[in-house]
Write a structure and sequence with these properties.
Helix content: 25-40%
Largest sheet: 3 strands, antiparallel
Strand order of the largest sheet: 1-5-6
Number of strands: 17
Structural class: alpha+beta
Strand content: 15-25%
Order of helices and strands: HHHEEEEEEEHHEEEEEEEEEEH
Shape: globular
Bound molecules: 2-amino-4-trifluoromethylsulfanyl-butyric acid, cobalt (II) ion
Distance between the termini: 69 Å
Radius of gyration: 21 Å
Number of helices: 6
Length: about 300
């Protein structure tokens, strides 16, 4: 009789739990009923700090403040206000809610929020620039509440958008949704970028490579890195307790960037419009939860 090669799982074979690790490093010798605790392994192997219940509650609370802050900004955005006005609004609201604005003095960033208009891709420093009818403006907030960080941004229309503005904001928003659709345990980080790139480039737009999503919660920027481009099936396996942002920056023209003299403000090299949407996500046991939930339909129907 032919000996069955499949009898038992080899110590060096991929673990049957689907973790992607070797059996001996994963479920070997552990009770099957108890799901493997990835906490130590992910910390050692990837420097990823998985979040526990109390951490998730903390980030969720910071996340609610982030969403409230974006809603407040939206209500004040109109032609004639300056990007400094948005900074003041965000700063005061954050402090009033017992939080600290993460951007302020972060690696020398001088203001409390990033405000990026039209061809500014990200990291716009609030200043005297006056918003005018037809502009698009991204507001990126990161409140720190009880030590927990939540990171979220949204691109708004100022007055009435033209068709280019409508288009790039729609594609950026849909790009985030494509990314979200890939977030569940067992999928890989590369699946997220793959879905975004395939969609955005299919719409004739380009994906920024230099800035990516990131782990968040205990600090502003943690492991892992979450590119918005890439290949399906590549990268770290998603497991419950991971918290990271997805924040695709999508350009109407080419993907190439320039950084201005201030060392922060990043613009499209070809001057084309750029839009972005960002939320903070938790990988749950069966999918994902946004810890900074806001509504996409209003943007997509605008
Ligand atoms: N909020 C940005 C992000 O999504 C980072 C801004 S860094 C700052 O990762 F210093 F400009 F605030
Ligand atoms: Co971010
Ligand atoms: Co951000």
């Amino acid at each position: 009789m032919l000996k069955k090669k499949t009898a038992g799982v080899g110590r060096n074979a991929p673990c049957p739990c689907g973790s992607g690790f070797k059996y001996k490093k994963c479920c070997l010798g552990k009770k099957v009923s108890k799901p493997y605790d990835f906490k130590k392994l992910y910390a050692q192997k990837y420097k990823i700090r998985l979040k526990q219940k109390k951490d998730i509650e903390g980030i969720r609370k910071a996340g609610r403040l982030a969403v409230d802050t974006l809603r407040l900004a939206e209500s004040e955005i109109r032609p004639g206000i300056t990007t400094d006005d948005i900074n003041m609004l965000v700063h005061k609201f954050t402090i009033k809610n017992d939080a600290v604005p993460g951007p302020l003095n972060y690696r020398g960033f001088p203001k409390s929020v990033c405000v990026s208009v039209n061809e500014v891709v990200c990291h716009g420093i609030p200043g005297k620039r006056v918003l005018k009818d037809g502009d698009i403006v991204n507001v990126d907030v990161t409140p720190v509440l009880d030590g927990y960080y939540a990171d979220a941004n949204k691109t708004f229309f100022v007055g009435t958008p033209d068709s280019d503005a409508r288009n790039i904001v729609r594609v950026a928003c849909e790009s985030l949704k494509k990314g979200i659709s890939m977030v569940r345990p067992g999928n890989r980080i590369g699946d997220i970028g793959w879905a975004i790139q395939r969609y955005a480039e299919g719409e004739g737009c380009s994906v920024v490579r230099e800035f990516i999503g990131h782990g968040v919660g205990f600090a502003f920027h943690e492991s892992p890195q979450v590119p918005h481009y890439g290949r399906k099936g590549e990268g770290i396996i998603l497991v419950p307790g991971m918290v990271f942002t997805i924040e695709p920056m999508i350009n109407l023209g080419k993907r190439y960037l320039s950084v201005l003299e201030d060392k922060w403000t990043t613009v499209t090299r070809d001057g084309s419009l750029s839009a972005q949407f960002e939320q903070t996500f938790l990988v749950t046991d069966n999918g994902c939860e946004s810890l900074t939930p806001y509504d996409f339909e209003r943007i997509l129907n605008a």
